[in-house]
Design goal:
The protein is α+β, with helices and mostly antiparallel strands. It is about 45% helix and about 15% strand. The protein has a domain of about 90 residues: K homology (KH) domain (GMP Synthetase, Chain A, domain 3), CATH 3.30.300.20. Strands 1-2-3 form a three-stranded mixed beta sheet. Helix 1 crosses helix 3. The longest helix is centred in the N-terminal third of the chain and has 19 residues.
């Protein structure tokens, strides 16, 4: 019998499912432009992912304003609207507790660009093309 692993490698199916439901609710709220905050007025915000804690009481919301412009202002506006957004999620999503919301910028695409740029540098390219040969 294999040993029991008490800590799974990634989020559970339940966390993923609830995260996706919260993501859809937030995307809908943000797309309607219902938030009365000057830093969010007329800004298109994408919500690519919501990561739920194992107890589903915390939601880390990855956001990105269209074109990545004014990201700090947008994050500040979302933080100011956090309680209102939590209430809206509670009305739309059937959970025992409305999750606390934390907003983070989605930097995955920037990270990808940095990695690709690094892979194109001459020294790394030489290592990649050189293979596993020893000098």
């Amino acid at each position: 019998m294999p040993p029991h692993n008490p800590t799974p490698a990634g989020p559970s199916q339940r966390q993923l499912r609830v995260g996706e439901i919260v993501r859809h609710a937030l995307s809908d709220i943000l797309s309607r432009g219902a938030i009365a905050d000057p830093d969010l007025d007329g800004v298109i915000i994408t919500v690519p992912e919501v990561r739920m804690s194992p107890d589903l009481k915390q939601a880390t919301v990855l956001v990105m304003p269209l074109g990545g412009r004014d990201a700090d202002r947008v994050l500040a506006g979302l933080e100011r609207s956090r309680k209102w957004l939590r209430g809206q999620i509670a009305r739309r999503v059937d959970l025992r507790f409305a999750p606390e919301i934390r907003f983070r910028l989605d930097t995955r695409y920037d990270d990808d660009d940095q990695i690709n740029a690094l892979l194109r540098t001459p020294s790394v390219r030489q290592d990649i093309e050189g293979g596993d040969r020893e000098d």
